[in-house]
Specification:
alpha/beta, 407 residues, Aspartate Aminotransferase, domain 2, globular, 7-stranded mixed beta sheet, single chain
Length: 407
């Protein structure tokens, strides 16, 4: 295996050993301290939490202890935390669960999402629409901020859920989630709808915890999706926060684990890893955000000096700390990513959660309506280990490749 760490220079084929990784939005390495916490639960404390003997009961207690710790950070009740396999499953449970609960109670349950949601939201909504659900897709301005007036005007009697991403996975723009919550609450008040009744607000916060406050009380959300693989935790881990007053139906069936919402033997190492990573992230997010945003701003300035024709996609003010998404019109982004890879730089041109058969352009960038950038944009996302020496090398590589691929 080749490595992106300067301390581990193993080569892979003919690739350079000194590679630069700028795709932390797609995934992060498991923090070593997190991994150490996980290790005992693979082979030593391997017991099934659903069993009745002492060892299993001890494992069940460990899971519940983590639930309590997470609840304090998130400002929710511990019984409102449901461990899952990650962001995609959590989003599916949230949206399909709401739809399944309301489909026989309301004619054409109505959902509101933005045009720049993660594929796990977009594709689930397409399925819901096929099954009789009604959908409104809200646009964004050139900065990538959701049109709050359009959202306000889209609320209607059969609206059951508004789902808006917290920090976008491609352009890094942070949405005003608490403002959206206030709009929904004002609508409920005007229509004499109980605060604990639909429409509810869900946010996919998978990209957020390392750099943003995920306190549910501050954000005023009813449901929240979290993903371990984006926060220096293990892949295949995450959770769904669901307030107790939000009624949804489970979408899988089995032994009734996670209070019946997510059946299947609990993946204890992943639960431990996710919980440790999330606690670390939220305890340090302000410090981490300052540090990484300074590095990101330096990177952007250096790129601008060398490539004055590039533009930045999305708001520079309301942006997650580690994201830089640039456009150079006329460049084939997919081809450019391959060329950058050959030069030792790993980055992305769209979300990693699309299949290779999908059209090679970004529907997120397209939604900004800022020219012809949807097929000519590159996403660079920094991480904890990114330093200036790497970024200096990255700028040289990007300049070389972009100048060679210009049409």
């Amino acid at each position: 295996m080749f490595s992106f760490s300067k301390k581990r220079n193993t080569q892979f084929g003919k690739r350079s050993s000194e590679r630069i990784f700028l795709d932390y939005a797609s995934t992060t390495p498991v923090d070593q301290k997190v991994f150490e916490k996980m290790k005992p639960f693979f082979s030593h404390n391997f017991f099934n939490p659903a069993a009745l003997y002492n060892e299993a009961i001890s494992i069940k207690k460990i899971i519940n202890d983590y639930r309590i710790k997470l609840a304090k950070l998130l400002q929710v009740k511990d019984n409102e935390i449901y461990f899952t396999s990650g962001g995609t499953e959590s989003n599916n449970i949230a949206l399909l669960g709401i739809f399944n609960f309301y489909k026989n109670k309301i004619n054409n349950p109505h959902f509101i999402i933005s045009k720049i949601e993660h594929p796990s939201i977009i594709e689930t909504i397409k399925f819901i629409e096929k099954k009789g659900g009604e959908v409104s897709m809200i646009g964004v301005n050139i900065e990538g901020i959701i049109d709050l007036e359009q959202l306000k005007n889209s609320l209607q009697e059969n609206t059951v859920l508004v789902s808006i991403i917290y920090a976008n996975n491609e352009i890094g723009v942070v949405q005003p989630v608490s403002k959206i919550s206030r709009i929904i609450k004002k609508y409920k008040k005007e229509k004499s709808i109980s605060e604990n009744s639909a429409p509810f607000l869900h946010t996919d916060a998978s990209q957020a915890p390392v750099y943003l406050d995920c306190n549910c009380d501050h954000l005023k959300v009813d449901m929240m999706t979290l993903d371990g693989s984006k926060i220096y935790g293990p892949k295949g881990s995450g959770c769904l926060i669901k307030k107790s007053y939000v009624e949804i139906e489970n979408i899988n069936f089995g032994g009734g684990q996670e209070k019946g919402l997510r059946s299947g033997t609990e993946n204890v190492p992943m639960i431990v890893g996710f919980s440790e990573a999330f606690m670390n992230a939220q305890n340090d997010f302000k410090k981490e955000s300052r540090k990484v945003s300074e590095m990101r701003n330096y990177f952007a300035e250096e790129l601008k000096k060398e490539l004055p024709d590039i533009s930045i996609n999305g708001s520079t003010e309301h942006r997650i700390a580690n994201n830089l998404n640039i456009c150079l019109e006329g460049v084939d982004a997919e081809f450019t990513v391959i060329k950058l890879d050959q030069e030792g730089l790993a980055c992305a041109y769209t979300t990693a959660c699309k299949t290779l058969g999908d059209e090679s352009k970004s529907y997120v960038v397209e939604a900004l309506n800022n020219g012809n950038c949807e097929a000519s944009s590159l996403r660079f996302s920094l991480g904890r280990e990114t330093d200036k020496s790497e970024l200096k090398k990255a700028v040289k590589i990007i300049k070389k490749v972009l100048n060679s691929v210009k049409k």
